[in-house]
């Protein structure tokens, strides 16, 4: 599994550094899941950010325009609509095998965490190309997926054209 220091070496030092678990606990209780530790660690370190003017990550304590809880609730409603269900390989939600929306990209991709079938199974990342019925399930954790993205590897969301020199981030308002 990729580590926060590996991500920080490419993206830059985190400046949010959230430590209060209360917003996560409330959101996890509402959704009936426990987010993977690597996802929480990264989002706690960086907060609600835009990476390479392309990829949006959100934190549950932001409570402004870019709150993870609000984003998930809205996206669950969107992806459960009868016109959208055909675009995903399984239902959007928090039950085993379902897909939890956690990020989005300006280039039209939606990023999901696939809830493991068994508690001991790993979480995986699924990226859906919003403008088509195409999706890719990546056999990697969120931190591994993000590290690959930051390296410019093709993980369905590709950063090469957005960060030709090196990855960068900015806080979302």
Brief descriptors of the model:
about 170 residues; alpha+beta; 7-stranded antiparallel β-sheet; 5 helices; 7 strands; globular
In short:
The protein is an alpha+beta fold and 173 residues long. It has helices spanning 4-11, 22-31, 37-46, 68-80, 142-150; strands at 49-51, 55-57, 99-105, 109-114, 124-129, 135-138, 169-171.
Explain this structure to me?
α1 (4-11) packs parallel to α5 (142-150). The model has no long low-confidence stretch (mean pLDDT 94). The longest helix has 13 residues, at 68-80. The chain has a seven-stranded antiparallel beta sheet with strand order 6-5-4-3-2-1-7. It has 173 residues and is an alpha+beta fold. It has helices at 4-11, 22-31, 37-46, 68-80, 142-150, and strands at residues 49-51, 55-57, 99-105, 109-114, 124-129, 135-138, 169-171. This is SMI1/KNR4 family protein. Pfam families: SUKH_6. It comes from Streptomyces griseoloalbus.
Question: How do the strands of the widest beta sheet line up side by side?
Answer: 6-5-4-3-2-1-7
> How many strands in all?
7
Helix content: 25-40%
Average pLDDT, rounded to a whole number, is 94
Poorly predicted tracts of residues: none
Largest sheet: 7 strands, antiparallel
Computed CA radius of gyration, to the nearest angstrom: 15 Å
The shape, in one word, is: globular
Q: Tell me the number of helical segments per DSSP (H or I, 4 or more residues long).
A: 5
Q: Which class do the helix and strand fractions yield?
A: alpha+beta
Distance between the termini: 30 Å
Question: What is the string of helix and strand elements?
Answer: HHHEEHEEEEHE
Strand content: 15-25%
InterPro entries: Knr4/Smi1-like_sf
Protein name: SMI1/KNR4 family protein
Organism: Streptomyces griseoloalbus
Pfam family, one: SUKH_6
């Amino acid at each position: 599994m990729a580590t926060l220091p590996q991500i920080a070496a490419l993206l830059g030092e985190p400046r949010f550094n959230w430590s209060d678990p209360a917003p996560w606990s409330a959101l996890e209780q509402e959704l009936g899941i426990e987010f993977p530790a690597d996802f929480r660690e990264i989002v706690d370190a960086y907060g609600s950010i835009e990476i390479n003017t392309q990829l949006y990550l959100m934190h549950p304590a932001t409570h402004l325009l870019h709150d993870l809880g609000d984003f998930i609730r809205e996206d669950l409603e969107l992806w459960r609509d009868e016109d959208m269900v055909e675009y995903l390989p399984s239902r959007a939600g928090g039950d085993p095998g379902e897909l939890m929306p956690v990020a989005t990209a300006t280039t039209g991709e939606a990023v999901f965490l696939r809830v493991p079938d068994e508690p001991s199974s790993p979480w995986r990342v699924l990226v859906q190309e919003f403008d088509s019925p195409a999706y890719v399930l990546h056999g990697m954790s969120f931190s591994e997926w993000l590290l690959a993205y930051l390296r410019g590897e093709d993980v369905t969301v590709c950063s090469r054209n957005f960060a030709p020199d090196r990855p960068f981030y900015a806080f979302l308002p």
